[in-house]
UniProtKB/TrEMBL annotation, chains A, B:
UniProt KW keywords: DNA-binding, Transcription, Transcription regulation
Manganese as UniProt keyword: no
One Pfam family linked to the record: FCD
Lineage: Bacteria, Pseudomonadati, Pseudomonadota, Alphaproteobacteria, Hyphomicrobiales
Identification of the protein by name: HTH gntR-type domain-containing protein
PANTHER family hit by this protein: GNTR FAMILY REGULATORY PROTEIN, TRANSCRIPTIONAL REGULATOR, GNTR FAMILY
SMART domains: FCD, HTH_GNTR
Coiled coil spans: none
HTH gntR-type domain residues: 16-83
GO molecular function term, any single one: DNA binding
DNA sequence: TAAGCGTCGATTGTCGACAGTTTTGGCTTG
DNA sequence: CAAGCCAAAACTGTCGACAATCGACGCTTA
């Protein structure tokens, strides 16, 4: 026991942690596409813009480097990570691997509560698709998959997913309005959830493979079109 | 193309990167068991001992935090990560998931060269076991598994493994001489390699499950005995 | 005219310092 | 003698500054 006297677990101090704030800020800028892949991220500039010193910025940059959002080039600074088509393929390869596991585990441990939450999330996606808000729809998509990993009940597995998706979002953030059909995106998740609810292992695996296989192809095409210099909104 | 004119590939400048040096130093101290789980890692103390300022130490600590070796407690400093039995179970759950994938992929892409390297590694383990050097044997064990991930040809998958094993090594580093039978450890890997060489998917999966299942149990027992305050060398 | 070299500005890597907070040790008190 | 409180020390979080290094621009030269 390291805790001397634990009262009720109430306080949960709001982390004023400047480093994490900076990390979130930068992360958001990257994911939202305001910082394009390949862009140099100057410590001094960020520090000036945020009105703080360079030390917290540096640490935040290290954090994002380890998360795969930034690439550190010694003595030259940090750059927004660029993803080649091959790397996207790697990411999806790994993602299929872990998401199969997550979906199976989630199916085993599925509670009434999480089942309802998952259904609600799909309804949200559908609503956002109807409202023609692709960005929010993609965010909801991400959350849906993340909920599956949460339901799997393995925090390390969830961490891998977070790492993966933060890398992927460097690219996916660029999709925005480009996404052709949000409705299709929303509907594509229904059979996956149904398979998880049904609890048949082979069906679940097939659905995950299919769902992510499609995503892998589409994101792959996107990246390819990006690297050939297609126009962006 | 970013390189203007590539001469022969000679230079390979030694990275003076102080941060990584510190990270390696701390990492080694933790893995080798000189820094026990739960121990506070004082920035000032480390900086003094290494004869440098606190800034690089701070950044290295952040790095190790993100790697799972340290735990950051705001305003209180960094502590060597402690692993509960449940967390070790989580780690092995994830590891089985990714190692199944890695073993399958490695089997598909197996070249003559990597096959020879894997066999050599097993021979090395055997030799170390005969020489009664459990620490080196464990290191060789780790390297063998890492080589499988390398052979799989997915750098992200490898990164997950590195993350996993760095967390596990916090515990495993404490085993040292406690390990009961190094020879058993060395021999246990033979069928796994043979399965990979044979290239039969179901056999590979079964071997991975068996091999890691055993390891999971043994490490789990170790952690349990640690938490009950068993003596250590 | 084009290629190579040297210099200048800008940026990173590292340092020491200061303010605020946590911990520790001793002291008081029941 | 144990528990609680108070003050001092130690430590973290952040800052501004300096030296070393990198990239760019202009100059020299074949």
């Amino acid at each position: 026991m390291r805790v001397k006297s634990q009262l009720v677990g109430l306080p949960e101090v709001v982390e004023s942690d400047l480093v994490r704030q900076v990390a979130r800020s930068l992360s958001a800028a990257i994911v939202e596409g305001r910082l394009r892949p390949g862009t140099k991220v100057s410590e001094a500039a960020v520090a000036r813009e945020l009105g703080i010193s360079r030390a917290p910025v540096r640490e935040a940059a290290r954090l994002l480097e380890n998360q795969g959002l930034l690439r550190a080039s010694p003595r030259r600074g940090f750059f927004v990570r660029e993803l080649s088509a091959a790397e996207v393929d790697e990411l999806y390869d790994l993602r299929i691997c872990v998401e199969r596991h997550a979906a199976l585990a989630a199916s085993c441990r599925l509670t009434q509560k999480t089942r309802a939450a998952l259904r609600e999330q799909l309804a949200l996606m559908d609503a956002l698709a109807r409202a023609d808000d692709p960005a929010a729809c993609i965010e909801a998509d991400y959350q849906f998959h993340r909920m599956i990993f949460e339901a799997a009940g393995n925090s390390r597995l969830l961490r891998v997913f977070d790492g993966l998706s933060s890398e992927l979002r460097v690219v996916i953030g660029l999709i925005g309005r480009l996404y052709d059909d949000p409705m299709k995106l929303a509907r594509a998740h229904v059979p996956l959830l149904e398979a998880i609810e049904a609890g048949r292992a082979d069906t679940i695996l097939a659905e995950v493979d299919h769902h992510l296989g499609v995503a892998r192809r589409e994101v792959g095409l996107l990246v390819q079109s990006l690297s050939t210099g297609a126009a962006l909104p």
